[in-house]
Amino acid sequence: MNKAVILAGGQGKRMKADMPKPLFKVLGEPMLEWVISACENSEISDICIIKGFRGEMIDEYLSGRYETALQAERLGTGHAVQQAIPFLEKDTDGNTLVLCGDAPFIDSETINQSLMLHEQNNNSVTVITAELENPSGYGRIIRSKNGISGIVEQKDATQEQRNIKEVNSGAYWFRTADLISLLGKLENNNAQKEYYLTDTISIAISEGKNAGAYKSSNPDIIKGANNRKDLLELNTYARNMVIEKHLENGVEFVCTDGIIIERDVEIGVGTQILPSTVLRKGTKIGENCIIGSNTVIEGCTVGDNVIMNNVQAYGSVIESNSEIGPYVHIRPESRICEGAKISDFVEIKNSTIGRKTAVAHLVYIGDSDIGKKANIGAGTVTVNFDGISKSRCTVGDYAFIGSNTNLIAPVNLGKAAYTAAGTTITRDIPDYALAIGRGELKIKEGYTRKKLNK
User: Fold this and answer.
1) From the candidates 79, 118, 246, 361, which is the catalytic residue?
2) Is 386 helix (H, G, I), strand (E, B) or coil?
3) 132 and 9 in one domain?
4) N or C, which end of the chain is more exposed by having fewer CB within 10 Å?
């Protein structure tokens, strides 16, 4: 079985934050998750994460999904992989992929193609490389007739070697049994007194084993973040990459200012995304919609021909031909049925709004089921919480709820039931009934004249 070891123990001091660097987010997901996803997309499910600084945060994030190993001291990349030896020894057949947890743009094609070359050439180790126009700062790949002869760091390179544009990505394939053996032979006889994973190449060659290099067609596998500026650049690059994908798929952007779309979001052909719109994980949007401006959608399924203007929606379903906004908050577990209209300053929570129902402005609907073609007047509130527990309200098809009606849950309003403006409903209303709950109007003439004279 093929395995993966992901190095995620870095502190990232220049980030100026008390958390492991691989947990910093790119497009809403930790860099570590991008790397894990690349492994999963390559059908590598046996993964060990090497943790270090604030390792408990790595454990908390993973929630037991994958095995972890602790690098208690930061003694180099080779030392980090050594912590995975018990994990590797569980199954020494097959190959092991070593990746950096803070290099988010490794892709499954690169992983699969490099493994193919690794196995075809019967390599002990295969370095994954990329070619950069400006390779400054990276270790250069020194190739030989049969593969590679080593990796030279820039500070140790000759001028001729510095002209080489092929560089080490920090990702490697190893035969698992060979990796265990090579790790045991690493030495720290260098100025930093660290154990370098790159030294496994020269050791393997000295033992007559094959060492090779696979040059990825994706130079972005090199990209990482050492500080906040780098992280911003990663986010900017990823943001543009995702927008370009949607442009190719027929999505319209009149201006991309402030638009953030996380990488698993699906958007149908002909949909227009307006500025300052954020589409987060788990969101699926249908065709020919208008989304934005200033809209946040997370974990929602949105149908076709939907208009959402200045809306925040979470964990809900918005069916086709609905019109929502501006200034609407749709909280989790809600369903806006086909053709419904939700106007300004409305909050909906854990509720169903029926087909072609209109919910006017300044309304709160919580824990309720509203039928089709109903009208909910301005200022209506479902009073769903009594201080101890929450209860539901039901409003029938074709009902008309007058302005400033309070529905004290649990109550059921029947089919085509009406409420007069300003009514407070405390018990069920039968079909076709009108409920009026106003107090007696009293008028005291001349009252304000006396008040103003004082």
Assistant:
1) 361
2) coil
3) yes
4) C
